[in-house]
Amino acid sequence: MRTRIQNSDDLRTEILRLRTVRSEIEGELKFETDRIASRFRVPLMLFSKVNDWVSPMFKPNRNEPGSLQQDWVTSIFRIGLPVVMNKFIFPKSGFLLKSVVELLSQNTAKTVNKDVVTDLINKLSEWIKSTKRKKKQEPGIDDYGIPPDSETY
């Protein structure tokens, strides 16, 4: 398909031929991409609708005043706290009590985040350090009686 170009007219005709071939290939590719996109359009719309409906359940509402950021500690507490409460504290309780415990523990777990846990650990470590300091600092003996080097016998 390669032609020999010998003069400028041959070059111009070859350029025109290549432009038409390029436009034909571009048209075919556009047709194929539109066909493929139309096959996936309905499932993608369905997935986006489901995602729009489900995603607010897992994201914190940042526009509400007083809402806290949800981080990995909060997620662990929201899942782990009801399991621990129902498994170890209320193992033989009924369905209603377990449901109430789950609701209450998930609501309280929303207030627990990484900052609260680090503040608690810092307060605990300061308390432990303060008890060690009190033991080390023994007050000196203040004796206001007769000095040992006095001349009284």
Architecture overview:
The structure is a single chain. This protein is an all-alpha fold and 153 residues long. Helix content is 70%, strand content 0%. The termini are far apart.
For the sheet with most strands, the description reads: none
In total, the number of strands is 0
- Number of helical segments? 4
The SSE order reads HHHH
Report the helical percentage.
55-70%
Residue windows where pLDDT falls under 50 for at least 5 positions: 62-67
Q: Which structural class is indicated by helix and strand composition? A: mainly alpha
Over the alpha carbons, how many angstroms does the gyration radius reach?
39 Å
Mean pLDDT: 78
Give the terminus-to-terminus CA distance.
Answer: 131 Å
Mass-distribution shape: elongated
Strand residues, percent: under 5%
List the keywords:
153 residues, 0% strand, mainly alpha
Summarize the structure.
The protein is mainly α. The protein has 4 helices and no strands.
Strand and helix layout:
Elements: H1 8-58, H2 72-89, H3 95-109, H4 114-136
